[in-house]
Amino acid sequence: MTTATVDSKALLAVPAAPKATAASTMVEVARAHGVSPIRQLRESVALSFGRSRMKLHEYYAGGLYDPALTARDKREFVGERGSYLLNSGLASKRLTSLRGAMRHKVLHTAMMEALGFRTTETQAVVSDEQRFGAVETCTDAASLRDFLMHRARFPLFGKPQSYSGSFGSALIESREGDDLFLGNGKRIKIDAFCEEIVAEYASGYVLQSALRQHPVLEEAAGRAVGTIRIVTVRRAAMPEVLYTLWKIPAPTAMSDNFWQDGSMIAPIDPETGIVGQVRAGSGVKGRNIDTHPATGATLTGLQLPDWQAALTLAREGHAVMSEFGVIGWDIAVTPEGPAIIEANANPHHMLYQLAHRRGIWNADFAHVWGEVRARSKAMLRRRIQQELGRVKKRA
């Protein structure tokens, strides 16, 4: 381990804002697909309005210049803003009273664990403004160092309390003396790590026991956990699974977010748990792959273990928070079974579009969104009527 590269920074940096689409990209698309730059711009402008709300870089990342897609097909795709508007329209904020609890990583994990769901274990939290009962709270760099030196059980996975997308995350495999060894093969001095955490995330940073993947997944995709994204919707009393996909980390990554170079993504058949065509990259750099670049294992066609248990975990979890119309679950499949990593009230449907090569407003899903929205409105009306009835009785 002493040969690991020494680094002064441990946390995964926030990616830079997307650069303006280069003219060379337009030319490359025109040559490869026979779509003129004028047509590309006309299509991208049209998709920036309506329910798509797609930015120019999202048009290219999604490969929507492909002439094999009809105009109707393209209108089914959304950008980040369009995805947010879809999700937020599925349930009124007046209905979703648990939104803050879901966003709070420590409280949500504790709540789900108390209800009997398998999830991650929080060992400590860094915060200079909050306390968490029996969970150890580190208020400064010195107390964090003391925890890592004397009480931490490695491996640890650290992430900011209030952010998504793996920004600020780190997989700490082990400690030797004053050195922390990271999941990306680098090492950092423990004092430098503590100072970085406090400087950037003093108001909230979570340190959890890092999970191991099921042997089938670790053999196929490596040590870093690649979570299963299961999106559930509530259009009846019991939530149901809408779509599923696998986020596969890059060989040198510490987490599974697709925006990291080398990360892969694949659709999963919700019925069988069999992995579909794996994709690496997006837009003009996107390509199909069948085998993992580091392990050499075949990914496309892989049968994921404990599949039905993972689906049940997501559905039952959504039933706890049935006021939400849609929830995106990140679930790790471990040797002991599936475990909840996180729940997202605003799942980014662009992942579905990249993996499945279909827009989220496709014919199979469009009526589902309408039914979810209608049930949310009915639930809110019922709550309002019940409250008005109680007010009348008190009066």
From TrEMBL:
Highest taxon in the source lineage: Bacteria
Residue ranges constituting the Alpha-L-glutamate ligase-related protein ATP-grasp domain according to the UniProt record: 131-362
Pfam family, one: ATPgrasp_ST
Entry-linked InterPro entries: RimK-rel_E_lig_ATP-grasp (IPR039523)
Protein name, UniProt field: Alpha-L-glutamate ligase-related protein ATP-grasp domain-containing protein
Organism (species): Arenibacterium halophilum
